[in-house]
TrEMBL record:
<dbReference type="InterPro" id="IPR001759">
    <property type="entry name" value="PTX_dom"/>
</dbReference>
<keyword id="KW-1015">Disulfide bond</keyword>
<protein>
    <submittedName>
        <fullName>Uncharacterized protein</fullName>
    </submittedName>
</protein>
<dbReference type="InterPro" id="IPR000859">
    <property type="entry name" value="CUB_dom"/>
</dbReference>
<feature type="domain" description="CUB">
    <location>
        <begin position="81"/>
        <end position="189"/>
    </location>
</feature>
<dbReference type="Pfam" id="PF00431">
    <property type="entry name" value="CUB"/>
</dbReference>
<dbReference type="InterPro" id="IPR013320">
    <property type="entry name" value="ConA-like_dom_sf"/>
</dbReference>
<dbReference type="Pfam" id="PF13385">
    <property type="entry name" value="Laminin_G_3"/>
</dbReference>
<feature type="disulfide bond">
    <location>
        <begin position="134"/>
        <end position="151"/>
    </location>
</feature>
<feature type="domain" description="Pentraxin (PTX)">
    <location>
        <begin position="193"/>
        <end position="388"/>
    </location>
</feature>
<dbReference type="InterPro" id="IPR035914">
    <property type="entry name" value="Sperma_CUB_dom_sf"/>
</dbReference>
<keyword id="KW-0677">Repeat</keyword>
């Protein structure tokens, strides 16, 4: 027979765990087997009754902690609520979208574009609690010239343009009734080509060219000025060309040397400028030609160099051709770099004229303006640091200088806040919830 003897004196006090919880004891239990003189010892723990109170207290704390964690997880979608967005395009949403936005939330997104650009935003999705005057939940868009307030479903699908390079979108929710909120896309829109530089296409199928709406006259002399940047390169690099049925004017390196090619006459100009002269710093380059004496001059980095190519005397460029950056006829021959502010005049400027030429001097044949160029959008890069970047117009109406579609011509700048008001025909989605039932609306705020 076996028996268990608990020897109180052998109990080992482990220590008081908590003043309110009691003590925990550990006992040595000796198992005495009859007929044997030895004892087997095992350890058991004994915990006094007050331990349960201690346990409850700690479980409660853990539970509260877990509740807190869960709430934090819910609130975490409020992150990045106040932001300044400077990317050229993007999307932002209300907190927790497409789930309901949190109650009592206030957010502000400041869309910031470089000088010379406006911002265009589109409500991809929009649903807020609806109320007369949007007094509960609202989105306010400050376009610069005015402020427009939205709630309900009214903003869904709308596009708004700023009148300056800053646009502020504010969101507010009250304590009750939440909806899924909104998703808004935005993009910076260059007002003028003067704010953009252009990559010379390396792809055969892509062409940056003067618009076919521009009639290029017969030229017996010309001046072409542009700013150019690119890594020093060897091999071929055609910078621009004028093509009728055949390339009739080409400037650049066609593989052997830097040449100005007019018709079938080649004028080597490597002694005036080479591709290696072009660096990552954008530099003005002008090249002039006159058929009276065959003078070819290059103005680059402030120095004017001229030579005479008699084989071009009497040549003439015909009308009706296509003027392009690069050559666009053969893969891999184009200059690998960026061109900005390309302008063409029908006369050969003198060195003093070139030295005093300003970036905003208008080319009388081709100017650096959207109305003169057909530029695939992916080849134009906005850059506020360009030499002739324009200041932001005071109102969007000034953007009507875009006479033909181009990368810098905003597609729908005529969408004004006043026209939006008239499109307000979306049915109500109001809920009562103890609040006043209302009709859909949005509100113009005057500053
Ligand atoms: Ca609400």
């Amino acid at each position: 027979m076996e028996q268990i003897l608990i020897q109180e004196e052998q109990k080992k006090k482990l220590g008081q765990i908590d003043s309110r919880s009691g003590n925990e004891y550990e006992y040595i239990i000796q198992i005495e087997q009859s007929g044997e003189t030895s004892f087997n010892e095992i350890m058991v723990s004994y915990i006094s009754g007050r331990w349960w109170r201690w346990k409850f207290w700690n479980v409660l704390q853990v539970a509260l902690f877990l509740i807190c964690i869960a709430r934090t997880a819910v609130l975490s979608c409020q992150g990045e609520c106040d932001e300044t967005l400077t990317a050229s395009d993007g999307i932002f949403t209300s907190p927790c979208y497409p789930n309901d936005y949190p109650p009592s939330q206030t957010c502000t997104w400041t869309l910031q574009a470089p000088a010379g650009f406006v911002l265009q935003l589109t409500f991809l999705d929009f649903e807020l609690e609806e109320a007369q005057g949007c007094i509960y939940d609202s989105v306010i868009v400050n376009t610069g010239a005015s402020s427009v307030k939205f709630c309900g479903l009214t903003a869904n699908g709308l596009t708004l343009n700023s009148s300056t390079n800053v646009m502020v979108v504010s969101f507010h929710s009250d304590f009750s009734v939440q909806k899924k909120g909104f998703s808004i896309s935005y993009r910076q829109v260059a007002v003028a080509l003067r704010n953009q530089k252009v990559t010379v296409p390396q792809n055969f199928k892509d062409v940056v060219r003067v618009s076919s709406l521009v009639s290029i006259p017969a030229l017996s002399q010309f001046t072409a000025c542009f700013e150019i940047t690119g890594q020093s390169q060897t091999g071929s690099g055609i910078i621009f060309s004028y093509t009728e049925t055949e390339p009739h004017l080409t400037f650049g390196n066609s593989g052997n040397s830097m040449d100005l090619i007019i018709g079938n006459a080649t004028c080597p100009v490597s002694d005036l400028v080479t591709l290696a002269d072009f660096t990552s710093n954008m530099q003005l380059l002008c090249i002039t030609w006159s058929n009276t004496n065959g003078a070819v001059a290059v103005y680059f980095k402030g120095s004017y160099r001229v030579k005479f190519c008699s084989n071009t005397v009497g040549m003439k460029l015909g009308t009706g051709g296509s003027f392009e950056l690069g050559r666009g006829k053969k893969q891999g021959q184009n200059f690998d770099g960026l061109i900005y502010n390309f302008r063409l005049w029908s006369s050969a400027m003198t060195s003093s004229e070139l030295a005093t030429l300003t970036c905003d001097a208008v080319g009388n044949v081709v100017d650096w303006d959207n109305s003169f160029w057909d530029i695939p959008a992916s080849y134009a890069q906005t850059d506020s640091s360009l030499s002739c970047s324009t200041a932001m117009p005071a109102t969007t109406s000034q953007t009507t200088t875009c006479v033909s579609p181009g990368v810098g011509c905003p597609a729908s700048l005529t969408t004004t806040t006043s026209s939006i008001v008239n499109t307000n025909t979306i049915p109500t989605n109001a809920r009562t919830n103890g609040k006043q039932l209302s009709v859909p609306h949005f509100i113009m705020l005057a500053f």
